[in-house]
Amino acid sequence: MTITAAMVKELREKTGAGMMDCKNALNENNGDMEAAIDWLRTKGIAKAEKKSGRVAAEGLIGIAASGNKAAAVEVNSETDFVARNEQFQELVRNIASTALSNGGDVEKLKSATIAGGSKSVADTVTDAVATIGENISLRRAAAMEVNKGVVATYVHNSAGEGLGKIGVLVALESEGGEAALQAIGKQVAMHVAATNPLAATREEIPADVAEREKAIFAEQARESGKPENIIEKMVEGRMRKFYEESVLLSQTFVIDGERTVEKALKDAEADAGAPIALKGFVRMALGEGIDKGESDDFAAEVAAMAKG
Questions:
Q1: Residues paired with residue 195 on neighbouring β-strands, in sequence order
Q2: Which of 29, 209, 228, 282 has the most CB atoms at less than 10 Å from its CB?
Q3: Do 22 and 154 sit in the same domain of this protein?
Q4: Domain shared by 7 and 143, yes or no
């Protein structure tokens, strides 16, 4: 298979590896992009990246919340200039409010009557395209609700009330005080914005994702030339670290850099006056595969904001 310059460029953008390394990886794997990424990772040349790479989509994430439920939507525009337009921002807010009542199914949301208006969300978006003069689309939506407790929210890179580049929902089930639940919930939401965990618990990590990581770690360990029994222990240790870094409850809480998120939630039960159960989270970043490293140290940036 002929390896084109475009293929090398795509692999460089996805992995950050050098041009020759990318060309070699593609040659070794007959042009298979995913296999080339794994090959680079095995060689220690590239870090794990999302399959989709990075897409420079403009627009806004909108968040709406009301006590025990919240919703997030992504509305795309062609330029960042339009994302700063008051009419566009009001549109995103209204779509988020509509999602709060209608849930996270995008098709259902498009046909629902928009909050504060008489037309459907889809027709309102079409009208906005004609008025603003730029293509606008509702890309996705999510909604969370708990029977008792709160769904806390956080918006990063805020462009206005409930609007930004990254939006997070964190569902906490508890009979505790709402103020205490909102306080710890917002901190956990800020943490999720910074670390982008794969899942809330170890059990929720997809089996194929865990197996892929394990295979890469095993191949790396074998290249050390150590015996299989040692390799097995090395892989176990690396998988333990993988779960600690990828699972929300096991991650080190960026707000203090000391406790795990699970311990922080446990400690918050004293203020709340009741047990707290994390029921799930949603992290919505503008643009598929957006790079979470928008600053030199994104986690430190979010932690600094939390400490005010």
A1: none
A2: 282
A3: no
A4: no
